[in-house]
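Lab notebook, page 48
Experiment: co-folding of the full assembly
Goal: obtain a model of how the components sit together before planning crosslinking
Operator: M.T.
Materials (sequences as entered):
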Amino acid sequence: MTDYQQIKAELEGIAIEDNPAMVLRKSRDFYWYSPILKAQLEHVTGDLIVSPENEDELIKVLKVAFKHDAPVTARGGGTGNYGQSMPLSGGIVLDMTKMNRIKLIEPGRVIAEPGIICAELDRQTKAHSGQELRFHPSTTGQATLGGFIAGGSGGVGSVHWGGLRDLGNVLRLRIVTLEAEPRVMELTSLDLLKVSHAYGTNGIITEVEMPLAPAYEWVDVIVGHDSFMDAVRFSDHLASSTGILTKEIAPIAAPVPYNYFTRLKPFLEEGESISVVMVAPHSIEPFKALVEVHGGTIRYRSDTAENTKGVPRAYELGWNHTTLRAMKMEPDNFTYLQVQYPSPGHVAKVQEMCAIFGDEVIGHLEFLRFDGAIQCSGLPLVRYTTPERLEEIIRIHEENGCPVFNPHRYTLEEGGMKQTDERQLEFKKETDPKGLLNPGKMIAWDDPEFDFKAGKNYLFKGITAVTGE
Amino acid sequence: MTDYQQIKAELEGIAIEDNPAMVLRKSRDFYWYSPILKAQLEHVTGDLIVSPENEDELIKVLKVAFKHDAPVTARGGGTGNYGQSMPLSGGIVLDMTKMNRIKLIEPGRVIAEPGIICAELDRQTKAHSGQELRFHPSTTGQATLGGFIAGGSGGVGSVHWGGLRDLGNVLRLRIVTLEAEPRVMELTSLDLLKVSHAYGTNGIITEVEMPLAPAYEWVDVIVGHDSFMDAVRFSDHLASSTGILTKEIAPIAAPVPYNYFTRLKPFLEEGESISVVMVAPHSIEPFKALVEVHGGTIRYRSDTAENTKGVPRAYELGWNHTTLRAMKMEPDNFTYLQVQYPSPGHVAKVQEMCAIFGDEVIGHLEFLRFDGAIQCSGLPLVRYTTPERLEEIIRIHEENGCPVFNPHRYTLEEGGMKQTDERQLEFKKETDPKGLLNPGKMIAWDDPEFDFKAGKNYLFKGITAVTGE
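Observation: model returned without errors.
Model output:
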């Protein structure tokens, strides 16, 4: 049995919290979007929250954890949706939010500590030199930069720049290993994939170098359309119009906007589907021309609305904020999927899925660049009935050529890769020989014999140990 | 007979030049790239060069021209390649280069007079706020902004932003009509297509509003490859890598680089094909990783080369500068084509054309975004033998699904549209009722019965009148 009192003593001088209510709160994310994960993970909690202020303190924490065989699960803002930073085996919840300094800002580039909140980073780089991150999660006000890289894939701005997986969208990561004598390593270019989107299973990020884009006074616009497919075709045309600079393009089907976007209701029309868009000020005129060509109606513009008080920013309507707004109003009725509609036939694929599922799966797309091509990812809302029906909905998508990145699984492999990322597994052997970093998230490490084709979900023994189930 | 002495008298106070040698020089562009146009246009000359300094002076010129039925052909830097600004019927050559002021620079936007040289505009916007044009012609040091819009289509930066035809890449044009009382009109969004790429046939541009992009210290890089197709595949992958910020991607086949890029010879390897690239400084590391993945070799980098004296900038190796460099060395042996290889099969189409023509048509591509998708345009060098063989080469391209924008024709229609742009024709009726603006360039105006399918080239009677042929 790991002696957490002893660990606490050995880490004297470093901020530690062990109040169980506080630890439970900091052991959670937005896993409850999924009824499956909600049942599986609701008892998960860590033993201690440790909050290092700098790399030296962090190294000390990792050294002590190694000595006592204590699991270490790094955590940023806790805005993940699949338990990315939930400590399945308990142990140390490594709160990274105190490592939040910016070290350098140059044209096109920022170097920062991983615990900085994305919106705060944007605030500072904008004030410094009119720059901002190329893209950020819709939770930019809560999410940390390191958490975004370790647990995210893309976001607001991906319609222009692609995702975190694309070479050049992360420039450098500095990480610390979990060993008797933790080592510091610097990763660039292709090596970054060893650590990006690995949920902190193979090293703790201590410094991040990111490219920056020019910061504009983005105008939030909501366009109303008669049908969801009108919104999709408009959005596809807009995303393909490279002369019109946008940061976000998300078509969302009725009745979601009118029913669940409470603060926007005065601007919206019942029954309309919408496109949520962020447009650069100097692209507003050509944007309006495109709206007109498609017969859409501009329902809201943040730069001309008489009263924007209380109206959320456009990015807080898209991505998983769409899901959040529906679930807030009807918590038991909704869950969601993450679907890829491969280009160039993406618009037709969306239409096919709409025809199959009707109102059971309500359309919400995010347009983005994928390997250079315009396509769309879906975060459709699903009217939830049973786990079996949810599995069936996923299966039907996949049988029709629309891969699903399953947000109802907490492992890296089941979440979308479907097969182990060998680079990440090899790298884990180097950086975490005892397997103490975020245990239970990489199946290949815990259970190399696991058969992905057997149709069973992986259930980490750490969970049952903690929850007693 | 138009009385140019009378016109000169009526325009007193406005700069006029009528020295025949000077007028001949300012009546020409790079039409001699084409052996066909060289023969047709070499005797073309205007009667007067008039250089207004502002819109008021310009209006006076147009009023006088209307009164005397004098043709008016607007001219910027004279860097066109198809006689765009050559006065086929003589008359007034309207030199716009004195209208070259910048009126406003804001984040993402500039308002300028049309006669400003593109590079000078970039110099001023960069000094003001670290901004520059989204894209410019390779002749940025000589070409004017207005000339680029009236006679160009895209350029260095189109790999990121698309072309001039794309909504949002030109924001507003102010034009003056040629009537008894010239009117001033403002055009935005879809209306811009009435005037863009119309060779000044339907209004004279007096003010331009353009979007700006961030100016970076672009690094010029030359990558060496074993074969042209290696260069093409690398370039395609690079253009599709949206996380790596580039401004120019041009694969050029051996033996062009080693034989004709004289100043770069010390850096190049004989027999290698190359990719000419401009990369943002913060994208250099991921760019290098991609070069390695493709087995390329970086032969030159402007940021690390020990001696860059006399080495041209990357943009002066691409677009029509490639053609120029080969023709300078072997003036009688080369001409060129403008070919479109439609995506997504563009790489395979390039390979097919290479297989058909071998060394007779030497590959040179420019990657760009077209309706949002990555594709490539070709500006291949052609080893010139006869006009008949040139026509045959064009025909074979078109029969194989690669449309040719024929640079051996001086009319708007034959240059690529193949059919009259009805919007431009209608607009000409409003703006130039006497048909005095750049006569002979819009077939639909001069000869509405012309049969494009008859297999004959249009020969403007104005030319034969001037040349006496």
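Interpretation: Residues 465-469 of chain B have pLDDT under 50 and may be disordered.
Next step: discuss with group before ordering constructs.
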